[in-house]
């Protein structure tokens, strides 16, 4: 049994130019959550999101809001009233190098907890992530979303994997009823 002492915070700011073509909106921020700096001290310090929504923060799902520092910049453009283009850059580090790198977004089956972790190798640098998504409203109830992301894995990723880069993309048809 361990006492749980964890924390997390998010700071975000942005500026939008609604009267300029494409209505550019530049956003930036810093999200950070605690990790466990000493696994033998009788306290568990890794932030644990009880009901996570990882996709909002991590569309390329190789990290989540546990033991992570995420410095990000984001540009949103609206070239047409039915089209939204979003481009993000994330500089990801582990908050505590003695803790683990966590991924996953919670319970997925009756017998699966939905999280995984990997050793940090005593490193903090996780990855640089660049991604772009396009959302197109085809109809009042139908939208098409496209996403592509590329992660440039750093020392933490290299501790576990021989390759450190990943590409990920998807197309999604979204129907609202």
Protein architecture, described:
The protein is mainly beta and 177 residues long. It contains 2 helices and 11 strands; from the N terminus they run ββββαββββββαβ. The protein is globular and about 55 Å long. The termini are far apart. The relative contact order is 0.16.
Task: Please give the structural blueprint.
Elements: E1 3-4, E2 8-16, E3 25-33, E4 43-44, H1 54-57, E5 69-80, E6 83-93, E7 101-104, E8 115-118, E9 125-139, E10 142-153, H2 155-160, E11 165-175
Parallel strand pairs: 1-4
Antiparallel strand pairs: 2-3, 3-5, 5-6, 6-9, 7-8, 9-10, 10-11
Annotation keywords:
about 180 residues; two-stranded parallel sheet; 2 helices; 11 strands; about 50% strand; mainly beta; globular; 7-stranded antiparallel beta sheet
The shape is globular
Task: Give the N-to-C terminal Cα separation.
Answer: 46 Å
Mean pLDDT: 92
Helix content bin: under 10%
Please provide the count of β strands: 11
Q: What is the string of SSEs from the N terminus onward?
A: EEEEHEEEEEEHE
Low-confidence stretches: none
């Amino acid at each position: 049994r361990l006492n749980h002492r964890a924390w997390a915070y998010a700071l975000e700011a942005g500026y939008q130019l609604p009267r300029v073509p494409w209505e550019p909106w530049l956003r930036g921020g810093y999200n950070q959550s605690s990790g466990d700096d000493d696994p033998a001290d009788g306290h568990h310090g890794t932030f644990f999101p009880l009901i996570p929504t990882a996709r909002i923060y991590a569309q390329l799902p190789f990290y989540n809001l546990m033991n992570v520092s995420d410095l990000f910049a984001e540009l949103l453009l609206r070239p047409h009233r039915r089209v939204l283009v979003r481009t993000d850059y994330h500089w990801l580090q582990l908050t505590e190098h003695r803790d683990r790198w966590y991924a996953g977004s919670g319970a997925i089956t009756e017998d699966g907890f939905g999280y995984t972790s990997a050793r940090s190798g005593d490193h903090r640098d996780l990855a640089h992530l660049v991604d772009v998504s396009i959302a197109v409203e085809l109809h009042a109830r139908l939208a098409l979303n496209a996403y592509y992301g590329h992660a440039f894995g750093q020392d933490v990723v290299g501790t576990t994997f021989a390759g450190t880069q990943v590409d990920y993309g998807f197309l999604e048809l979204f129907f609202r009823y």
